[in-house]
Specification:
By secondary structure, the protein is mostly helical. About 65% of the residues lie in helices and about 0% in strands. The protein has a two-stranded antiparallel sheet. A hairpin with an 8-residue loop joins strand 1 and strand 2.
Length: about 190
């Protein structure tokens, strides 16, 4: 229902995710919180069918990305591809993920792959400011709850870089790792 109201709102408005006609006398921002999907679809709305919904495609994408980032995360610890595959199946069938999507009826909260992506960056030797910036920006566009979890992992990575002497020897500059994601946070909130 929120998607339908958002779809009917003006194409150019501020904030971009405003839903001015959501009920009588109410003015709110995007009700589902999934601006990553709904903003591009709003621009495509004139060519989409009248009864278009994207939830099924979103859920399929979440499961695919859950498997992909599970393999990426596990590759930091396990080198055998078959064990990575078995582990990713466990991540895909995680009870919390299935509960949030199927029973609780919150498909946007199925974006657990963002948490796996953050954990992968945390444990990865090739973590960069650009990757963290993209991750934080995408998380903020999808769901604020998951964005908070991703941000906690990000700040933990920064703390680890500050404390762990091995990370400092690898030449990772903490100032570079701070500036870009913080700038992303500022841009998304403005």
């Amino acid at each position: 229902l929120g998607w339908e109201f958002f779809r009917q709102s003006p194409l150019v408005q501020w904030p971009l995710t405003a839903v001015p006609n959501y009920g009588t006398g109410f003015h709110t921002v995007l009700t589902t919180g999934n601006a990553l999907v709904e903003l591009p679809l709003k621009f495509l709305s004139p060519v989409l069918p009248a009864s278009f919904q994207y939830v099924g495609m979103w859920i399929l994408t979440c499961f695919a990305l859950q498997g992909f980032f599970a393999v990426r995360l596990l590759s930091n610890f396990i080198k055998e591809p078959i064990l990575q595959l078995i582990g990713s199946i466990m991540f895909i069938s995680a009870p919390t993920l299935l509960f949030r999507i199927a029973i609780a009826g919150h498909p946007v909260l199925g974006a657990h792959w963002l948490i796996l992506w953050a954990l992968h960056l945390y444990f990865s030797k090739s973590s960069s400011a650009n990757r963290w910036s993209i991750l934080v920006g995408i998380a903020l566009m999808i769901n604020i709850y998951i964005a908070v979890m991703v941000s906690v992992i990000y700040f933990s990575a920064l703390l680890r870089l500050k404390i762990d002497p091995d990370s400092r020897k690898e030449g990772i500059r903490i100032t570079k790792l701070v500036v870009k994601p913080v700038a992303t946070l500022i841009v998304v909130f403005v």
